[in-house]
Amino acid sequence: MLTLTTLASGSSGNCLLLSTGRTHILIDAGISCRRIKTALNAVSLHPSELAAVLITHEHSDHISGLATLTKQYDFPIWASRGTAGELNRRIAFLEDRLFPFLPGSSFCIGDLHIGTFPISHDAAQPSGYTVTDGHRTAAVVTDLGVVTEAVLAAASCADLLVLEANHDEGMLLSGAYPPFLKSRILGDCGHLSNRSAGALACAAVSGGATTVVLAHLSKENNTPTLAHSTVSDTLSCSQIDPCRDLQLTVAPRDVMGAPLAV
Ligand SMILES: [Zn+2]
Ligand SMILES: [Zn+2]
Predict the structure, then answer these.
(1) pLDDT in tens, 97-121
(2) How many domains does the chain have?
(3) Domain range spanning residue 110?
(4) Are 2 and 138 in contact (CB under 8 A)?
(5) Given strand 160-164, what is the order of strands in its sheet?
(6) Could you identify which of 44, 82, 151, 157 might form a hypothetical disulfide with 124, taking C-beta atoms 3.0 to 4.6 angstroms apart as the criterion?
(7) How far, in Å, is the centroid of ligand 1 from the Cα of 242?
(8) What is the pTM for the complete model shown?
(9) How remote is the CA of residue 190 from the centroid of ligand 1, in Å?
(10) pLDDT one-digit tens code per residue, 171-193
(11) pLDDT value of residue 47
(12) Distance 239 CA to ligand 1 centre (A)
């Protein structure tokens, strides 16, 4: 059984826990070390029990707690070569603990098999992840501007999908962001809209996903209700019942989500 718990999700910080019961990993550490410790404690875990921390990319909302966490606890850190280079530059004494990989490669951590795939985002070498315990697979697909074949393949093999639903295009375009920022978010190296998330959710559910967690919502250009309803409507248009055929949830921004098991 794979259990996902989001510790935080959104542009103010991202961190999620995947656990088999024996092996526990974090994907990203974009909230303070103190918050990570408190959240782990709430699910009866201590940071010293973490088998590894996987980083998607070097933006601060994904790594802001990493420096302090690595000073206090001795876990390995997995990141793409490009991301590892950025981490090495920003955080002292990290080199010996970094396990760089090329997106597309795979490796094992404890009883988890980790797959990686490139994503299109304005960072050095961002990577998405699939995590499987041999029976069930979770895929983490956030911070990307376009859905590529590699992303589609990862989502289609997932039982549980953590899926970016960053913004509502109408809210973004009519909102207060300056034009360059709107272009960045809407561009191929930006973030996925609710509409794009809906299309990818359809592909994932058609491939067998039973749980979809909408994540990395913009505070300014989205609401949990809007993200949920847009994705639900897209699923319904594909003859997928969003209430009966899957569990569709939205990861809370600043607090832990309820653990989800597949
Ligand atoms: Zn982000
Ligand atoms: Zn980012």
Answers:
(1) 999 999 999 999 999 999 999 999 9
(2) 1
(3) 3-261
(4) yes
(5) 106-109, 112-118, 127-132, 137-141, 160-164, 211-215, 247-250
(6) 82
(7) 26
(8) 0.97
(9) 10
(10) 999 999 999 999 999 999 999 99
(11) 97
(12) 31
